[in-house]
C-alpha cells in the first residue's frame, strides 16, 4: 500500500510528490494530462524562472520529479473511496490503495448539465469499467469528452451494452458498429432514474444509463463528503480537507490561480500528509 496518492500532475501535485519523497514517503502521481499552464505563452511572475513558456516550466517540473524517481501515471481517476482507514482509488478501472490522498487536480470549467447531479448513481455514471455490468443488455449513452472515452464505449459494447456515442466528432478508435451522434448532451431526463438524454439540438435519446466521460471529475464527485466553499475545496491552513487523510492544493482550493501559490500549497499539503502518516504510525493505525 502506498503512503500517498497525489491526484494531479501540475505544479501543486509535483511539488507535493517531491516533498513527500524528501520525507521518505512512498507516493504515486496520477495525472489527467496537461492543464491550462501548458497554454501560457510567457511566465514572468515565478521567482527565478522569468520568460519561460508554461510548457517549458512544466517540463522542468516534470524533469525534477523524474530525477527523483517519482512515478507519474497518465490517465483518469474515476472516484476515490475511503475504506477501513485508507483509500481505494479507481484509476482507469484499476483499484489502487493508499493511506492518504493529496488532491491537486486544478480547476475544471465543466459544469454539470441539468439533471446530472440529481441522477448520479441512478443512471448517471463517470466510469464505464466500474458500472458497466449494471447495464448489460440495456441502452446506454456515452458522452465522450475525454481521450479514453472511445475505449470505454468499446468496453461497454463488448460486455453487451447497447451503446450510442455522443461527441463533437466521431473518434477513429470507436468501433464501427457503435452508433454515433454529433453534438452534446444538455439534459439528463427521468423520473428518479435516467430514462433519456436531451441533446443540444433538442433531440432525445432514450436510455437507462448515461456515462459522462469528462477529462476530469469535479472534486466533490470524485470523493464523497468533500466540502466545498464558493465552488472550491475548503481546506485549513495545513491544506487538510473535511475528509481525514485527504489534503488539497493548488487551483482547486481557490484564488489566486498562480503557479507560485500552487507550488507552496503542494509543499504544505505534503508536510501535513507526512505528519498525518507519522501520527498514524505512532498510534498503530
Please tag this protein with its features.
285 residues, 6 helices, five-stranded parallel sheet, alpha/beta
Give the helix/strand layout.
Layout: E1 2-7, H1 11-22, E2 27-31, H2 54-67, E3 72-74, E4 77-83, E5 86-91, E6 94-103, E7 124-125, H3 128-131, E8 139-145, H4 149-158, E9 162-167, E10 180-182, E11 185-189, E12 196-199, E13 204-206, E14 209-214, H5 219-222, E15 228-229, E16 232-233, E17 246-248, H6 259-282
Parallel strand pairs: 1-2, 1-6, 2-3, 6-17, 7-14, 8-9, 8-14, 9-10
Antiparallel strand pairs: 4-5, 5-6, 11-12, 12-13, 15-16
How many helical elements?
A: 6
- Spatial extent as radius of gyration: 20 Å
Oligomer: single chain
Order of helix and strand elements from N to C terminus:
EHEHEEEEEHEHEEEEEEHEEEH
N- and C-termini, Cα separation: 14 Å
> Structural class of the secondary elements?
alpha/beta
* Beta-strand percentage range: 25-35%
Shape designation: globular
Poorly predicted segments: none
Main sheet attributes: strand count, strand direction, barrel closure: 7 strands, mixed
Number of strands: 17
Percent of residues in helices comes to 10-25%
Mean pLDDT figure: 92
Amino acid at each position: 500500500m502506498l503512503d500517498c496518492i497525489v491526484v494531479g500532475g501540475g505544479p501543486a501535485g509535483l511539488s507535493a510528490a517531491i516533498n513527500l519523497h524528501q520525507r521518505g514517503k512512498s507516493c504515486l502521481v496520477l495525472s489527467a494530462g496537461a492543464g491550462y499552464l501548458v497554454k501560457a505563452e510567457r511566465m514572468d511572475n515565478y521567482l527565478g524562472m522569468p520568460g519561460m513558456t508554461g510548457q517549458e516550466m512544466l517540463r522542468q517540473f516534470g524533469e525534477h520529479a523524474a530525477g527523483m524517481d517519482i512515478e507519474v501515471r497518465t490517465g483518469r481517476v474515476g472516484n476515490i473511496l475511503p475504506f477501513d482507514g485508507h483509500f481505494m482509488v479507481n484509476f482507469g478501472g484499476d483499484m489502487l490503495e493508499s493511506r492518504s490522498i493529496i488532491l491537486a487536480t486544478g480547476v475544471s470549467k465543466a459544469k454539470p448539465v441539468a439533471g446530472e447531479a440529481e441522477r448520479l448513481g441512478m443512471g448517471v455514471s463517470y466510469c464505464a469499467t466500474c458500472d458497466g455490468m449494471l447495464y448489460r443488455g440495456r441502452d446506454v449513452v456515452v458522452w465522450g469528452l475525454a481521450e479514453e472515452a472511445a475505449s470505454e464505449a468499446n468496453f461497454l459494447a463488448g460486455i453487451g451494452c447497447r451503446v450510442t456515442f455522443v461527441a463533437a466528432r466521431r473518434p477513429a478508435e470507436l468501433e464501427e458498429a457503435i452508433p454515433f451522434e454529433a453534438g452534446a448532451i444538455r439534459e439528463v431526463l427521468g423520473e428518479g432514474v435516467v430514462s433519456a438524454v436531451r441533446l443540444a439540438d433538442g433531440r432525445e435519446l432514450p436510455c437507462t444509463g448515461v456515462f459522462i466521460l469528462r477529462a476530469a471529475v469535479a472534486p466533490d464527485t470524485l470523493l464523497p463528503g468533500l466540502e466545498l466553499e464558493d465552488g472550491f475545496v475548503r481546506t485549513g491552513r495545513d491544506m487538510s480537507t473535511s475528509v481525514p487523510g485527504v489534503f488539497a492544493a493548488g487551483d482547486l482550493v481557490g484564488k489566486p490561480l498562480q503557479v507560485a501559490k500552487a507550488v507552496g500549497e503542494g509543499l504544505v499539503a505534503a508536510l501535513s500528509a507526512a505528519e498525518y502518516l507519522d501520527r498514524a504510525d505512532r498510534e498503530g493505525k
